[in-house]
Amino acid sequence: MGGWRLEVGRMALYITFPVALFHYFNQPELFEEWVIKTKREMYPPENTPEKIEVVNAIKRLKEKQELDRIRALEKNVSD
Questions:
Q1: Residue 62: which H helix or E strand, with range?
Q2: How much is the pLDDT for 50?
Q3: How far apart (Å, rounded) are the C-alpha atoms in residues 75 and 34?
Q4: 59 with 25, same domain?
Q5: Local structure of 66: helix, strand or coil
Q6: Tens-place pLDDT, residues 20-73
Q7: 6 and 41 belong to one structural domain
Q8: Burial (CB count within 10 angstroms: exposed 0-12, middle 13-18, buried 19+), residue 34
Q9: Do 78 and 62 share a domain, yes or no?
Q10: How far apart are CA 62 and CA 79, in angstroms?
Q11: What are phi and psi of 36, to 5 degrees?
Q12: What gap in Å lies between CA 26 and CA 21, rounded to an integer?
């Protein structure tokens, strides 16, 4: 039929074609914008006033706890 050269050519095509397509379609530049847009739609940034208020409340609680610890240490040292 075609001989060994035809078989080698066909095998090269069978291996090269999927590898070339994989390389071409997996370039980040081709789908980076789409991925970022989709991610922002699914998980919008949380800069709501409620979140800021919660973060500030947690910060105030931590500061109060730290002051209480310092007072407790000062009391133990003075005793």
A1: helix 49-78
A2: 85
A3: 60
A4: no
A5: helix
A6: 999 988 888 888 888 899 999 998 877 788 888 999 999 999 999 999 999 999
A7: yes
A8: exposed
A9: yes
A10: 26
A11: -65, -45
A12: 8
What would the two tokens of residue 67 be?
A: 């002051």
Kindly report the pTM of this predicted structure. 0.41
DSSP states of 34-55: HHHHHHHHHS-----HHHHHHH
Specify whether 30 is located in the same domain as 62.
Answer: no
Phi, psi dihedrals of residue 7, rounded to the nearest 5°? -65, -40
52 shares a domain with 34: no
Q: List the domain range (segments joined by +) for residue 51.
A: 46-79
Start-to-end CA distance of the chain, whole Å, equals: 103
Please state the rounded mean pLDDT for residues 5-17.
94
Is 70 exceeded by the pLDDT of residue 1? no
Same domain, 2 and 40: yes
Considering the domain architecture, whether residues 39 and 51 belong to the same structural domain is answered as no
